[in-house]
Amino acid sequence: MAILLLAGYTEFEVIPMDKIEKIFEELDKLNKDELNEFNERYIEYIENKGWLILSEQTLFEDWDNEQDDAYNDL
After folding, report:
1. Which structural domain range is residue 34 located in?
2. Rounded to whole angstroms, how far apart are CA atoms 34 and 55?
């Protein structure tokens, strides 16, 4: 079984390629309108996922500072 190493913003994930191949097989079955709908929704999904990951990183970076260490023991 082949694998794909997917690099995210904060982690690496190993995905079996047969799972990816199944997705592409299903995409090949879509007609033009369905493929356009998938494309629009997937782009929106990726954008939202990216903003979520970015916002989580920024949030924790803001809290990880010496000034706020006093609150860690409360």
Report:
1. 24-63
2. 31
pLDDT band, very low/low/confident/very high, at 1 (cuts 50, 70, 90): very low
In degrees, rounded to 5, the angle at the alpha carbon of residue 18 between the alpha carbons of residues 25 and 8 is 100
- Residue 58 pLDDT exceeds 80: no
With respect to residue 8, please indicate whether it lies within any of the assigned structural domains: no
Q: Provide the β-strand partners of residue 12.
A: 7
State both tokens at 61.
């970076």
Specify the number of domains making up the chain: 1
Of the candidates 9, 22, 35, 60, the residue with the CA atom closest to the CA atom of residue 68:
60
CB proximity list for 3: less than 8 A, separation 6 or greater: 14, 15, 16, 17
Assigned domain for 57 exists: yes
In this structure, which amino acid lies at residue 21?
E
